[in-house]
Design goal:
The structure holds 2 protein chains of 2 kinds. Chain A is an alpha+beta fold. Chain A has a domain of 55 residues. Chain A has 3 helices and 3 strands, in the order ααββαβ. In chain B, a hairpin with a 5-residue loop joins β2 and β3. The two termini of chain B are 22 Å apart. Chain B has one domain: Acid Proteases (Cathepsin D, subunit A, domain 1), CATH 2.40.70.10. Chain B is mostly beta strands. Chain B is built from 1 helix and 12 strands, in the order ββββββαββββββ. The longest helix of chain B has 6 residues. Chain B has a 6-stranded mixed barrel with strand order 4-5-10-6-9-8. The chains are: A alpha+beta, B mainly beta. Chains A and B meet through α1, α2, α3 and β3 of A and β2, β3, β5 and α1 of B.
């Protein structure tokens, strides 16, 4: 079966089935991402628990971070929908 | 070095832990470098692909690069190749990266440019899924 399914999908299915122990940091990251707009660029705090900025473009987010003097946040691109990734 | 998988939500309320890594991309022979962003580690990807915004942030005119195509589950799309520097922690690697106008994530770290420089061990077992990452220096 694995020979006909792209490796990235197999990897994802494996992760999806895992019984992972949730913790506060994971829950905070998920909460932050769920408040972020879709198909946008976002910045999470370095500990990934807070949404610091978001914008339609990468440059929008960088400008917002520079305005507040933030040089530690992590930038992400949110997908068009939070459906599982298979790129 | 062990990097924990990163949590991403699903529309059904579940959480997926996925192999994302903090990286940045620099323009060669300049001090220009992007902010740190999360890129997906994908052993199924042929090479490293980033959003065009990543190139634009360091002053690269994307469509001046060599035009190629890449196929994924979403179909075929045009990409443009540019030499850049990939920053992974303290490591700095010269790579030829592809830049695409449509990606669901900021970047994808694939075999050429990433896996040829790092030994990656995916470990999704247990309560702390993550990946072991080790720089490999070829003689």
């Amino acid at each position: 079966m694995n020979s006909v399914i792209p490796s990235c999908i197999v990897k994802h299915l494996t992760i999806q089935r895992m019984n992972v122990k949730r913790n506060e940091q994971i829950d905070a990251r998920i909460a932050a991402l769920l408040t972020a707009p879709l198909n946008a660029w976002v910045a999470l705090s370095d500990d990934e628990t807070r949404l610091v900025a978001h914008g339609a473009t990468y440059q929008d987010v960088v400008e917002k971070l520079e305005k507040i003097g933030d040089d530690t946040s992590i930038i992400l691109k949110t997908p068009p929908s939070w459906i599982p990734l298979a790129v | 070095m062990r990097i924990p998988y990163r949590a991403y939500p699903d529309t059904d309320g579940t959480v997926h832990l996925l192999p994302f890594l903090r990286v940045s991309v620099g323009k060669k022979r300049t001090p220009l470098v992007t902010r740190v962003f999360e890129a997906m580690v994908d052993s199924g990807a042929s090479d490293c692909i980033f959003q065009v915004a990543v190139a634009e942030a360091i002053g690269i005119k994307v469509e001046s690069g060599t035009k190629k195509q890449r196929a994924g589950i979403g179909g075929v799309q045009d990409v443009w190749i540019h030499p850049v520097q990939l920053h992974v922690g303290a490591e700095l690697i010269d790579i030829n990266a592809a830049f695409a106008k449509t990606l669901p994530v900021a970047g994808i770290l694939g075999r050429i440019g990433f896996f040829e420089h790092f030994k990656i061990t995916f470990d999704p077992t247990g309560n702390s899924p993550g990946m072991e990452i080790e720089r490999v220096y070829k003689v």
